[in-house]
Amino acid sequence: MKVAGSIRVYTGHGDKPQDTLIVQAEGATRCPAYRGCAYVVFEDLALADYGNRLPSLTFEVFADAGDTTVGEITRAMLPEADVHDLDQVLAGFSIDQGSVADVLATIADAVPISCSSTGDQLVVQSGQAVAGRSFPLLPLPARSEDTQAEKVKTTGLSRKREPLPRVKQSALRYYDVARDYQPGLQRGIGRNEQGELQVIELPAALSADAARLIANSAGRRAARPSDTITYRLVEIDPVLGPGAIVRLPVAAGLWEITQWEWQKDGLTLDLTACNTRTSTNAASVADAGRLNLAADLVGTPTMLAAFELPWDGVGSGNSPIIYAAVSAASAGWSGASLFADPGGDGGTLAALGGTGRRRALLGRTLSVLAPASPLLIDYASTLDVKLAGADLELQDASMGQLLQGANRAKVGSEIVQFASASPLGAGNWRLSGLLRGRGGTEWAITTHVADEVFAIVDEALIRLDSQTVGDAGNARIVAAGLGDASAIGAPISDRGATLQPLSPVKGSASRLADGSIALTWVRRARGAWLWIDAVDTPLNEETEVWEIGFGDANAPSLRWQTNSADLTLTLAQVAALPSGVPQTFNVRQIGRAGASRALAITAPA
Fold first, then answer.
1. Alpha carbon distances (Å) from 71 to 19, 81, 84, 210, 274
2. 57 lies in some domain
């Protein structure tokens, strides 16, 4: 399904869009490369068919091929700021809410950032000591003549070092590039104590090694004792605002101004020692973990076949057993919804549920399956088939597995089993070692043509509700999936196969000494596929009724009915048999839903 209309995509930040692109909802459009934020406005979308609600929409964003840095991200958000020394490399960065300050605060949890202002200029730089960069030197602290005042007034400064903090192990949560950008977690150095980890949430794409370095740096910063100085000045300098990094004439290292207070006799600065910068090029080895990556495959159209199967002996056997074989050319197929068209005229559809993502072993025959005896293993015939997808596979089966029901396949109307499946390439297979006419379908052995439906009868088939499907002979099954331009419909083949009685076997006709004819046959029953010793074959019908016709199978000249698997015609009845018709007795079992196919018995001379 597609939505008519267009979508306007703004790239930039806030109320200052830099680029505008109209994206047609009917197709995919690639946005030009941009840095910064983007937001979307829906325009002219026809939503009447969706209850005036936005349907499920997918946006695919193509990022720049190369890496980025924290400095580049900051410059994209603050193009007029002076940004330097933020060279931490990121494979990508994503945040979908919050102001610029919120974004910088999120980054600063992992990569220290210092912000200050010089006049109208905003300065954003690293919050760590950077070697080789010049920082302003403060004058000597100013002393006060008031000997009764606190130490900071008498000496001009007060220094305090906190004891070693009791910290837990730090960890960084990020998007791992080696695991298809799935969330990853790297632990930094530090003691692993009871309680939860101090986890830094960084919505950035990183390698496991880079994430481990950042986690280690965060662990060192957290373990460093706090060193602060209260510093008194008598001159105001616009450069010396909160966030500025300075040097002191009375202490080594670099210091960040965290706050300042303007008093009547001077300016008091609160300074915090800057952490020593850790090289981002230091060696670090980390494991990204195992990736169970789903195949990124294109969705393909649905392939569908529907048919009714003979009763397998499970359940009551009084309802039609209808299956749908649903498949596709690739594993990118995401399944389909099934519907019943009871009238077969495209009218009201009844929901049958979904298929799931499992594909049936469905295909078409490439050759015509030759006739063979259903009583012997057919080693002479082979059958070439083409499956729906080249990645679908068939398996060989031993004789023991075949006797347990393995490798059952529906070929046209016949059910066969195969012992050997040889791949021919491109999804083509050659089947051999065949068992023919399984499930009472020996009548279909001589009906094969080219390009028939081929479907493996296994758990991948979808059992359909026969009541929802209905009894109409022209009922259809309809499938609709994400990869289908329109709904796919298929008729239900072999209607009545479940409830139709099986034809009898081993028919014989013999002339008795008095000239009468004795007919005998052996009964078979629906669903009675197991040969149980010392137990008669169950009837599986309400009553045992046989119809015997003489002459043409479809329009017999004479008919008889009996309740046992035999019939004796008297001499008078034999004399009344017409001579201008086929001299054949056709025996059918009458079941609850109809008659079986006929067993032909040639009349004796």
1. 22, 11, 7, 17, 19
2. no
Side-chain half-sphere exposure of 289, counting CA atoms within 13 A: 14
Nearest to 390 by CA among 428, 430, 333, 357: 428
From the number of C-beta atoms within 10 Å of its C-beta (0-12, 13-18, 19+), residue 27 rates as: exposed
Same domain (yes/no): 447, 478:
yes
Residues 88 and 28 in one domain: no
260 and 202 in one domain? yes
Q: Which of 94-103, 388-397, 419-428, 440-449 has the lowest mean pLDDT?
A: 94-103
pLDDT score for 132: 60
pLDDT value, residue 20: 43
Q: How far apart are CA 45 and CA 24, in angstroms?
A: 10
Cα–Cα distance for residue pair 416/438, rounded to 1 Å? 6
Distances (CA, A) of 99 to 13, 34, 106, 203: 10, 19, 11, 15
What local confidence, expressed as pLDDT, does residue 178 receive?
Answer: 87
Residue 171's domain comprises: 74-287
pLDDT at 43: 55
584 - beta bridge partners?
602
Q: How many helices (H) and strands (E) does the chain have?
A: 7, 40
For the cut 70, the answer to whether the pLDDT of residue 593 exceeds it is: yes
